[in-house]
Design goal:
single chain; alpha+beta; rbstp2171; three-stranded antiparallel sheet; 51% helix; 14% strand; elongated
Length: 106
């Protein structure tokens, strides 16, 4: 007797809703962000190493869609605004503290 399986399709595995507008409370304005997906997460982690500031800069470079900023622009940002944008990108991408711990423990 054969089992019926519900096989995942590519649409089930690839995120199709990868962008959204979020309000940055510190400036009371909105920015458009996108999810940082698996391939980009690995590149950011490799490039940033243990440097949390480099990690934040690279996350914003990758995840901020609008306005599009250069590295120089990001380095001149208020650190609190940069952190809020970075946290919004991380949360939207599913990178919570809990998920980071799970990934490290693989």
């Amino acid at each position: 007797m054969s089992e019926e399986r519900e096989v995942a399709q590519i649409g089930d595995l690839v995120d199709t809703e990868a962008e959204k507008w979020v309000k940055i409370d510190l400036i009371d304005k909105e920015v458009r962000i996108k999810k940082i997906l698996l391939g980009s997460m690995g590149n950011i982690t490799k490039k940033a190493g243990d440097d949390p500031f480099e990690n934040l800069i690279l996350m914003i470079l990758e995840g901020l869609v609008e306005p599009k900023l250069t590295r120089d622009d990001i380095e001149k940002m208020n650190p609190l605004v940069a952190n809020e944008i970075g946290m919004s990108i991380a949360e939207f991408s599913g990178m919570t503290k809990e998920s980071a711990k799970k990934i490290r423990n693989l």
